[in-house]
Amino acid sequence: MRLNGKTVLLTGASSGIGYECAQRLAEKGCRLILIARRGEILKQLISQLPAYSEPHIYYSADLSSEADIRNVCQKIISANIPVDILFLNAGVGTGKYSSFEIDYDKVLYTFKVNFFSIVLFVKYFLPVLKKQRQSMIAVNGSIAGYRGLPASASYSSSKAALMNFIESLRIDLWNTNIKCVLISPGFVKTPLIANNKFFMPFLMSVDKAAKIIVRGMEKEKPEISFPFWFVLIAKVARLLPHNFYAKIMYGRR
Ligand SMILES: NC(=O)c1ccc[n+]([C@@H]2O[C@H](COP(=O)([O-])OP(=O)(O)OC[C@H]3O[C@@H](n4cnc5c(N)ncnc54)[C@H](OP(=O)(O)O)[C@@H]3O)[C@@H](O)[C@H]2O)c1
Questions:
Q1: Would 2 be classed as within a structural domain?
Q2: Tell me, what's the pLDDT at 51?
């Protein structure tokens, strides 16, 4: 897909992967609609981006709130902004999470941001995407969604739900103009993982991650997963028998 001239709605653009991808996409000639809670950061980011005939815009919204999402989607749709790419990147981590002390509200919040916000954006924008010549839904999952990880029952399951959601969408939209892209990063150096106390193998810079993501979007890859060796290990681990997998992961809680 030629990114030049495309309008991209990007969530979670105020930090980390989203912030970096916003810069790369603008350099590629995309017009951006940026969304996050911290509007001041988005405003400042826009002031630094290369500008085109149509200005980049931003909306401040809390993606754990259905009302906020509906409100922002309606504003964009009623302004007739021709969104070509939905890049649903915003997400929250949970750090180490004890399955012995399940905090339902925290799990619900994680699912609202990491999963249900994506369902809502897709619901509202599918009719818009259908009208474009070439369009894309790209969601930011995680290698953590491949298989349940230790002390990650909340985050892992929210990303697993997202993986299956985009996989089902890809089938249902197969014969349409809409490409479905799953982004599956390993550890990327952003504020999301800054407080992790455990060892993070194959940790990657956010700059490199953004380059890989934008290149993958241009190539319309169904899955943009990285770094290579971590993905390989994680995909092989998917083949392990359940009890064997649980036993070797037990020590990593
Ligand atoms: N970093 C990693 O190692 C890693 C690995 C695999 C997958 N990922 C995924 O990559 C995506 C981006 O993560 P990141 O590492 O770039 O994290 P980050 O630096 O913490 O950025 C998260 C972004 O999501 C937005 N966000 C969070 N909660 C929100 C809410 N309730 N409403 C609106 N926006 C919200 C934040 O904006 P505001 O705070 O301004 O609202 C921020 O822009 C996430 O989906 C994450 O799960 C990250």
A1: no
A2: 82
Our CA angle for 28, 30, 31, nearest 5°, is: 150
Q: Is 7 in the pocket of ligand 1 (CB under 6 A)?
A: no
Residue 1 resides in a domain = no
Query: What CATH number does the domain containing 129 carry?
Result: 3.40.50.720
**CB neighbour class for 162 (10 Å; exposed up to 12, middle 13-18, buried from 19):** buried
Give residue 21's pLDDT. Answer: 98
For 29: left if phi > 0, alpha if psi spans -120 to 50, otherwise beta; the answer is left
Question: Does residue 229 form part of some domain?
Answer: yes
Supply the range of the domain harboring residue 232: 7-250
pLDDT at residue 11, as a whole number: 98
Is 12 a domain residue? Answer: yes
CA of 205 to the centre of ligand 1 (A): 15
- Chain-wide mean pLDDT for the chain? 96
How far does residue 230's CA lie from ligand 1's centre (Å)? 21
Is 155 known to be catalytic?
yes
What is the whole-number distance in angstroms between the Cα of residue 114 and the centre of ligand 1? 9
Catalytic residue among 19, 109, 155, 245: 155
Tally the domains of the chain: 1
